[in-house]
From TrEMBL:
Keyword Glycosyltransferase set for record: no
HAMAP family: SecB
Stored Gene3D superfamilies: SecB-like (3.10.420.10)
GO cellular component term, pick one: cytoplasm
Keywords: Chaperone, Cytoplasm, Protein transport, Translocation, Transport
GO molecular function, one term: unfolded protein binding
Entry's family note: Belongs to the SecB family.
UniProt xrefs under NCBIfam families: PRK05751.1-4, secB
The protein's name: Protein-export protein SecB
Main location: cytoplasm
Protein role: One of the proteins required for the normal export of preproteins out of the cell cytoplasm. It is a molecular chaperone that binds to a subset of precursor proteins, maintaining them in a translocation-competent state. It also specifically binds to its receptor SecA.
C-alpha cells in the first residue's frame, strides 16, 4: 500500500533545483577615477530579462539577466550586468504551468542571487551597493502573456 502511494506521488509534478551559477558577469566604470570626485546623485536604470532553454530530459536552464546603468548627472558612473542561471528539473506539468514555472517561478528563485552578485560587484568597484527592490515576476509574466495575446489578436490580414 505504501509502495503504491509512493508510485502515485512519483507520477505527479516534480520540481527540483539542480544548480545555481553565474553565467556571465561584467562591470565597467568608464569615468573613473574622475567620477569619484563628483557629487554622488545616482540615476539608476535597470533592464531585466529572462530566457529559458530546454536541456536533455526534463532539465531546463533559466537565465535571469540584470543590466544596470548608473549615471550621476550626465556622466555614466558604471555599467554592471549579471547573468544568473539555474538548472531545474521540472516534470509532470501541463504547458501553461510549465510556461509560468519557467517564466516567473524560476526567476523568483534566481533574483536574490543575482541581486547579491550585482551588489558585490558594484561595491568592488568602490560604489555604494544598489540594494535593488524585489521584483514581482508573476506580475511581469502576466503582463507579457497579455501583450502576447493582444499581439496574436492583431494579426495583419492580406
Amino acid at each position: 500500500m505504501a509502495e503504491q502511494a509512493g508510485n502515485e506521488q512519483a507520477q505527479g509534478p516534480q520540481f527540483s533545483l539542480q544548480r545555481i551559477y553565474v553565467r556571465d558577469l561584467s562591470f565597467e566604470a568608464p569615468k573613473s577615477p574622475e567620477i569619484f570626485r563628483q557629487e554622488w546623485a545616482p540615476n539608476v536604470a535597470l533592464d531585466l530579462n529572462t530566457k529559458q532553454k530546454a536541456l536533455e530530459g526534463d532539465f531546463h536552464e533559466v537565465v535571469l539577466t540584470l543590466s544596470v546603468t548608473v549615471k550621476t548627472g550626465e556622466e555614466t558612473a558604471f555599467i554592471a550586468e549579471v547573468q544568473q542561471a539555474g538548472i531545474f528539473l521540472i516534470k509532470g506539468l501541463d504547458a501553461a504551468s510549465m510556461s509560468h514555472t519557467l517564466g516567473a517561478f524560476c526567476p523568483n528563485i534566481l533574483f536574490p542571487y543575482a541581486r547579491e552578485t550585482l551588489d558585490s560587484l558594484v561595491v568592488r568597484g568602490s560604489f555604494p551597493a544598489l540594494m535593488l527592490s524585489p521584483v514581482n515576476f508573476d506580475a511581469l509574466y502576466a503582463q507579457e502573456m497579455q501583450r502576447m495575446q493582444a499581439a496574436e489578436g492583431q494579426t495583419p490580414t492580406a
